[in-house]
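Continuing the batch. This is chain 6 of the set; chains 1 through 5 are on the previous pages. Same settings as before, nothing changed between runs. Recording input and output for traceability.
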Amino acid sequence: MKKSLLAVATFLTVLVTQAQTEEELKAQITAKKDSIAALTGPIQGRVDALQAKLDALPGWKTGAFGTIGGSISEFSNWFSQGTPNNSSGNIVITGNAFANLKQDKFFWNNSLSINLGWVKLDDKDIDTDTEGFEALTDVFQISSLYGRNISKNFAVSALGEYRTTLLDNFNDPGYLDLGIGGTWTPIENLFVVIHPLNYNFVFADNDSVFNSSLGAKIVVDYTRNIKDIAFKTNLSVFASYEESDLSNWTWTNNFSYTLWKGIGVGFDFGLRNNRQEAANFQGVDLDAADNELQSFYTVGLSYAF
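Output for chain 6:
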């Protein structure tokens, strides 16, 4: 009996000692982490301050990042679905690039955005369906903004912006905006373009719904690289002076987070409102079009340059 009690007491002592040792080690680890944080905090602040000074220096700033997403699947005799024998897949590629020149008296910003997607659904029980990939997402936009500084945060500017599709119906429609006005830069990397004098050239075969017009152009663009994060948002608005049905706007957002050697995850999201495109697709007049909100999103692997 005494031996049993002694064994139990010894076991409990070992457990208590081990628990104390574990708590002590955890406390030491927490203290070390706090010490490291206290050291790295000021250092990181200095690094961020130096990076801000570097970004503010005159000269060219360039960058590019994109997203690649895709999947491939094949089913054989999978009777629980409507097409038991099929092969399907989708591929999406997005890319964003910029080349900005900053000088004391002027700036010149250039950007390129693409979003391309292909999809296929091959029903092996039907011989007449399409077996290959077909274009699904097709967005192309390029812009160039020149500004002459008249104050620290405001410039007289001129903008050229072109939007169309690449894979299907190139330049049908195509939109070319040319205008002049002012650009406000309240913070680094944020540009708010307000051009009250802008002409929206529309190129299309269907002249009954696609028309060029004079109007105002508003663009809000913010592009930023923070360590392993690349982010871009762009809102492009054209307000026609001639007819509200000729107005349109597009808002795109691109996000990329690098995990390892340039490879990471990416997310792209966009919205658009364009009555002319809706009328052309529905085959009706402008005033009869059901102008629903257009949208897309892409999630996949990304690669940052």
